[in-house]
Write a structure and sequence with these properties.
This protein is an all-beta fold and 71 residues long. It is built from no helices and seven strands. 0% of the residues lie in helices and 39% in strands. A hairpin with a 2-residue loop joins strand 5 and strand 6.
Amino acid sequence: VIPDVAKEKSTFCEIVAVGPGKRFQRSNGEWCFQPTVLKAGEKVIIGKFVDLEYDGLVVCHEADVRAVVDG
């Protein structure tokens, strides 16, 4: 039996721009910065649930990337 999530169609994309990273708070209350790992020009696979588009581009979080196909 294959779960519905595994049957979702993926989308191939090329990254055109990335941000610097994100700030997050650890469980002890300390604030940290996590730099972005992805780079502009990389080809990636994203899940189908990413549906935010702006001016013909898909906008998503780094966590939405399933795999880097070519970097």
